[in-house]
Amino acid sequence: MAPLRADGLLPRDEFIRRLSRSLAVGGGLIVSSLSIGMAGYHWIGDLPWIDAFLDAAMILSGMGPLSQLHSNAAKLFAGCYAIYCGIALISTAGIMLAPVIHRYLHKFHLEDDSND
C-alpha cells in the first residue's frame, strides 16, 4: 500500500523490496519476449538457435534484424514481433523505472509541502 503524504517517504528497505520486485517483473518480461522471438525465428524463419537469439535480441533492443528472411511467414512474424517489441520495450522500461520515479516525485512533493 502506498504511504500517505503525512507518512513521508517509504522506508529504504521497503523501497528496495519494491524496486527489486519491479526489476524482477521487467526481467521476466524481457526473458519471455526474447524466448518468443527466438522460437519464432528458429521455427518460422528456419534460423539456427544462435542466429535466432541474435535477431530476437537485436529487434528487442531496437537495433533491427541482421538475418535475411526468405519466406512470407517469416517476414510476417518478424513484422509482428518488431511491433510487439516496440511496445514491450517502452512498457518494460516503465515498469522497471516506476519505483524510482515515484519516490523522486514523492520526495519532491514533500519538499514542496514543507515550503508552505
Provide an overview of this structure.
The protein is mainly alpha-helical and 116 residues long. The protein has a single domain, classed as Helix Hairpins. It is built from three helices and no strands. Helix 1 (12-43) crosses helix 2 (49-60) and helix 1 packs antiparallel against helix 3. The longest helix is centred in the C-terminal third of the chain and has 43 residues, at 72-114.
Characterize this entry briefly.
With 116 residues, this protein is mainly α. Helix content is 75%, strand content 0%.
Index terms:
3 helices
Cα-to-Cα separation, first versus last residue:
27 Å
Basic shape: elongated
The number of helical runs is 3
CATH topology: Helix Hairpins
Order of secondary-structure elements: HHH
Structural class: mainly alpha
Count structural domains: 1
Averaged pLDDT, please? 90
How are the secondary structure elements laid out?
Layout: H1 12-43, H2 49-60, H3 72-114
Helix pairs in contact: 1-2, 1-3
